[in-house]
Amino acid sequence: ASPALDSAGAETCPELDQRGSARPAGAGCDRGxxxxxxxxxxxxxxxxxxxxxxxxxxNKLLCESxxxxxxxxxxxxxxxxxxxxxxxxxxxxxxxGRVSFDNAGAPVMSTVESGYYLDNAFWSGRxxxxxxxxxxxxxxxxxxxHAVMQYTTHLLNYYQSGAINESLAxxxxxxxxxxxxxGNDSAAVKWLIGEDVRxxxxxxxxxxxxxxxxxxxxxxxxxxxxxxxxxxxxNSGINNKAVFLMVEGGRFGTVTVRPxxxxxxxxxxxxxxxxxxxxxxxxxxxxxxxxxSCAVQRGGAxxxxxxDCLEVRKALNAVQMSQxxxxxxxxxxxxxxxxxxxxxxxxxxxxxxxxSDQWTFGAMTGDTRWxxxxxxxxxxxxxxxxxxxxxNDFDFSHTDDDQISDTYAMPAEAIQIPSVGTTVxxxxxxxxxxxxxxxxxxxYIDGGVLEYSLDDGLTWKDAKPFYKSGQNYNGSLYNGxxxxxxxxxxxxxxxxxxxxxxSTRYDFRSLAGKSVRLRWRMGTDYSGAWLGWxxxxxxxxxxVGRPSTPTLTAPANYVIxxxxxxxxxxxxxxxxxxxxxxxxxxxxxxxxxxxEKGLTASEFALPAALAANSxxxxxxxxxxxxxxxSGWSAVKSFxxxxxxxxxxSPADGSTTATNRPEFQxxxxxxxxxxxxxxxxxxxxxxxxxxxxxKTNSYTAAKSLVAGTPxxxxxxAxxxxxxxxxxxxxxxxx
Length: 733
What we know:
Layout: E1 46-50, E2 60-64, H1 76-96, E3 108-112, E4 121-123, E5 128-130, H2 137-150, H3 159-179, E6 192-193, E7 203-204, H4 227-235, H5 237-248, E8 250-252, E9 255-257, H6 261-275, H7 283-296, H8 306-318, E10 340-342, E11 348-350, E12 359-365, E13 370-373, E14 388-391, E15 405-411, E16 415-416, E17 422-432, E18 435-438, E19 441-444, E20 447-453, E21 461-462, E22 467-470, E23 494-495, E24 502-507, E25 515-524, E26 532-545, E27 552-554, E28 560-561, E29 567-570, E30 578-584, E31 592-599, E32 603-605, E33 615-623, E34 636-640, E35 647-649, E36 654-655, E37 662-665, E38 673-679, E39 689-693, E40 697-699, E41 710-717, E42 728-731
Parallel strand pairs: 1-3, 3-5, 28-34, 36-42
Antiparallel strand pairs: 1-2, 4-5, 6-7, 8-9, 10-26, 11-26, 12-15, 13-14, 14-26, 15-25, 16-25, 17-24, 17-26, 18-19, 20-21, 20-23, 20-25, 22-24, 27-29, 29-32, 30-31, 30-33, 33-34, 35-37, 37-40, 38-39, 38-41, 41-42
Helix pairs in contact: 1-2, 2-3, 3-4, 3-5, 5-6, 5-8, 6-7, 7-8
């Protein structure tokens, strides 16, 4: 933005700059500055070939960068594809420092005039491929973004994860289209995808419904069919609409969004894609990731503010992205029964990020089909992290008609179910098992079940009776008699397609105290396959309710105690694993003497003596394993007694000088009077003397009988009377 840059008129621009060096050719002239370029930037290589309308690629090399004008007009689509590849690579480098799609400088190959798929363009996993009439700037940006995401998010092109992948590709494709200063960017076509291809526009980001694509989760156009890998190109409209609202703003439904522009929007989605999304992410995951990305980047280089993040959230809410699981279509299990939460200390958990050491794989029929993805298959599809447990529906080491299998994956060790409480099994999973339709008849061939054993694997039973929430078995497998049928034929099972990741919860309360083994068992018939079975985030844990409020038991309310170091006791609270205790000298607990956190027992012995002749207040609250805190208990108070007087004279076992002895004792603080008792009985069942006196001495008013043992004791009176002193024995002459 310096006025020294590109500000002098070309007609007055000298041939040499201030150093006497020739200025680089260009439309601008730098006034008062050295003019040049920085050497040593990344080497971004573009290679363009033609398939010459054959269904193979690549075929014939046309050009390679640094050549820019690929064929000098001989093949216009090759010229455009080559230029687009160079510019899109540069766009990702300038915006995010990415060096080609793999961030390692891999050459970008583009093949034009492909006869492989007509009326299409795609990223093959290694190159950009265009059929005739499909080379366009937004298409090039779209397909290159697919290449980038192959090395970042690994989003599987399947249902919602595939829709997110398509939308991310649309975002950068459209950004390139709108900022490359070429083509038609008028308002009428500005937010269309593929407006320049031979068959016309394919999608609209500003109004997805124009192409019968959904613009929100509740749209009647939400694609539920398994075709197009679960409607990945149609359902991308939901995030596309949200991005349009973020960039340009506007009103959608009842929500008005203020625009935040391209730069901030791209930064938010780039961080989300590179740091927060997993390969199996759905729209609810994207909702959380985009909001988190915005929060993380507040105050960063792109100037994202709290207000911007509010607009981002409004745009996502406008398209109902947090309502990503359509009722009955993508069932999600609750983690626990209503009103309960998981104990974070799981009995068993595996997210498969550290291999398969906790698991045993095997097969009753055929080969073992279970492994940790991506493994040899080289694809990712995980609900969390990078890896998941995978049951392969097809064994590539066998022929197409030799695919019968009955294979399982199970935790290597049995799981001990606690004898009390609510113990559950929860897992995320996605499946696509062989199924087809013939004459409107549905055939579900392959499938999977969950089984359990209580005798260390000698016998197994179906876990279906324990199902409580989320995706249940969705029907029975085909039970027709034919050679090579599925070993699980006829059984209720997970079958067909889950439409992406779902979750399931089983309740094991009826197995309390048992040692349980679990296994995920998959059966396939002699031929045919689809996706298989992905299992992730397997957890067995107890569910805990809100902790009850403790009931205080001792000391009793308002009691006066002479033990100045008492033990405070209360009843065990339901679901409590820890307690907080407060002891104060005032009823508002402003003057805390003890503020104990995380006590594990329902009692607390004071470590030091309290002051005598004082009043104290105490209360307790409970905390469960999930960290929920109860309210404070009802406050109780107790008083500490005045210190018990110490008897001084007559001393224990002594004989007094007279038969009307004088009694003396200590004078504890707080005493306003004293009660003295003299008796012939150690238990003071009757008294010869029982008097209240103001001072700490007393002389007998009548003569005592010689030779008789007497007992005496004293109690201090006041606001908090003391306990009786221990009795002392004496004799009179």
